[in-house]
Design a protein that fits this description.
The chain is α+β, with helices and mostly antiparallel strands. The protein has helices at residues 2-23, 58-63, 69-84, 88-92, 105-110, 112-115, 118-125, and strands at residues 33-36, 45-48, 133-135, 138-140, 146-151, 154-160. Strands 3-4-5-6 form a 4-stranded antiparallel β-sheet. It starts with a helix and ends in a 6-residue tail after the last strand.
């Protein structure tokens, strides 16, 4: 009986230790993307949480095509002020035209209020300059409302997506 109790105690200790180590794993990678596959497989809906608590690394900036991340962060903080003050001239000077929904700077200025609607402005205001989602296409604000890239040493908007994701 004494050996049996000792065996039970050892088994419980091993089980507890294994569970405790699994719960305290050092892998801090979190995938915040949820993909819901519809039954008909015609489309895939992706819900991405782009508010990251992780600082964008130099490697991520490099993959996105940025050669000077500190300069981009400084630019972006200035850009936030332009958006808050509706400075469409300064913003237009940093757009790579044509865009799918805006062919020229003149068209952008004329349609500024529609292009930089509340969704776009909120994505800029709430974006932390140290925590961008980046990929080979560039860096995006929020859920992709604006996409930036670096072209010939200049930071430019390459896409304006001012409609909510559904």
């Amino acid at each position: 009986m004494k050996n049996f109790l000792l065996l039970v105690a050892v088994c419980l200790t091993v089980s507890f230790t294994a569970c405790n180590q699994a719960g305290n794993s050092t892998d801090t990678t979190q995938d915040s993307t949820q993909v819901n596959m519809p039954a008909n497989n015609d489309s895939i809906k992706t819900n991405m949480d782009t508010v990251s608590s992780v600082v964008t690394t130099d490697e991520q900036w490099s993959i996105a095509g940025f050669t000077n991340p500190p300069s981009f962060k400084q630019f972006f903080n200035t850009f936030k002020t332009w958006v808050a003050n509706n400075n469409s001239d300064s913003i237009a000077a940093h757009i790579q035209f044509p865009l799918k929904n805006c062919p020229t700077a003149a068209a952008f200025k004329k349609d500024y209020a529609n292009l930089f609607n509340g969704l776009v402005k909120n994505s800029v205001a709430n974006q932390d300059a140290d925590r961008f989602f980046t990929n080979q296409n560039g860096a995006m604000t929020g859920n992709g409302e604006l996409w930036f890239n670096e072209m010939n040493g200049k930071f430019v908007i390459i896409a304006i997506n001012n409609k909510p994701l559904n």
